[in-house]
Automatic annotation (TrEMBL):
Pfam families linked: 23S_rRNA_IVP (PF05635)
UniProt-recorded name of the protein: Four helix bundle protein
InterPro entries for this protein: 23S_rRNA-intervening_sequence, 23S_rRNA_IVS_sf
Organism: Chryseobacterium antibioticum
SUPFAM superfamilies: IVS-encoded protein-like
Domain of life, source organism: Bacteria
Length: 120
């Protein structure tokens, strides 16, 4: 088991989620239960799955949940790009989110690879 509060990957994914929520504050009301809701679920899923994996006893289980977090990060990336193309958020707001997301994706990938080396 890992102390999630000490995991940079978890802390950065939490910060990303907070930034995503703030960025969506001005989305159209008719998207509240559509794309906006899906984006929030994807953002929350990243840190939640890192936390769930960190709380497991076996590294193989942690690896499994990191895979889910990694998939959720790509869902979020797709949704943020779509949101910008639909002009719900500006490029100026979206670019820092996508940059931060890219950093989180890299961390998840490296973390997964390090765990994978230990479980094989």
């Amino acid at each position: 088991m890992h102390n999630i509060k000490k995991l940079k990957i978890w802390n950065d994914s939490i910060d990303l989620c907070v930034d995503v929520y703030k960025a969506l504050a001005n989305m159209p009301n008719d998207e509240k239960y559509g794309l906006s809701s899906q984006i929030k679920r994807s953002a929350v899923s990243i840190s939640s799955n890192i936390a769930e994996g960190a709380g497991r006893e076996r590294e193989k289980e942690f690896y499994y949940f990191l895979n889910i977090a990694y998939g959720s990060s790509y869902e979020l990336q797709t949704q943020l790009i779509l949101c910008e193309k639909l002009e719900f958020i500006s490029e100026e707001i979206n670019k820092p989110l996508l940059d931060r997301l890219n950093d989180v994706q890299k961390m998840i990938y490296v973390f997964k690879e390090n765990i994978n080396k230990r479980i094989i």
